[in-house]
Amino acid sequence: MQLKKNNVWTGLISGLLLPLLTFLILFLVLKENNTLISFFKRAIDLNVVTKFLSISVIPNLLLFFLFIRKDFLLSARGVLAATLLDAFLILLLQVIL
């Protein structure tokens, strides 16, 4: 049985997981011996949490174009939906914080 890769769910899941992975890499690079919770608290104090989240969504652009290039148009649609969901959540956080 072959795994079907060209569907909206594949794009949606990968489009939601890639920013999380990118944020964790960003945390590991910038952590300065902090825990994840203290990193979040400091980011909230400096009012940069939405900037970090916005930067972590950028790799979705590469994933989107990779799916387009491989002609996985349904997966690209899922990545686009995940990116729009991420953008909405970042906007919501910007208003709340």
Q: Globular, elongated, flat, extended or rod-shaped: what is the shape?
A: elongated
Radius of gyration: 15 Å
The description of the largest β-sheet is: none
The whole-number mean of residue pLDDT values reads 88
Percent helix range: over 70%
SSE sequence, one letter per element:
HHHHH
Task: Write down how many β-strands occur, each being a DSSP E stretch of 2 or more residues.
Answer: 0
State the secondary-structure class: mainly alpha
What portion of the residues fall into strands of 2 or more residues?
under 5%
Number of helices: 5
Q: N- to C-terminal separation?
A: 47 Å
Low-pLDDT ranges: none
Written account of the structure:
This protein has 97 residues and is mainly alpha-helical. It has five helices and no strands. Helix 1 packs across helix 3, helix 1 runs antiparallel to helix 4 and helix 3 runs antiparallel to helix 5. The longest helix is centred in the C-terminal third of the chain and has 24 residues. It is elongated.
